[in-house]
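Q: Got a minute? One more chain.
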Amino acid sequence: MKMYIMAKQEILLDSVVVRNDKSYLASAVGDELVMMGIESGTYVGMNSVGSVIWGLLEQPIAVNELVYRLTELYEVPREVCEKQVLGYLQKINEQGMLSVIS
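A: Always. Here it is, folded:
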């Protein structure tokens, strides 16, 4: 029997994304976030910036808007922020922590 793994949708700057709360339990530890996959039992730790991003993902948000909000909060060039945010979102998407709406 062949098994196929469905590839996660690529995240672009015009994508709309939202966090997948149903798969993870989260607890704040200082300004960081510790999460546990309900089904997998795996732990994920997020630093303070990751925690801010997770908070912004509570409601559906366009990646462009997410980048804009982060550049308002932190002194980072937009191009650098875009690259890092896209990489980060792709990583948490691969872990099932994110839903790509469009």
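A: The longest helix spans residues 78-94.
Q: Perfect, thanks.
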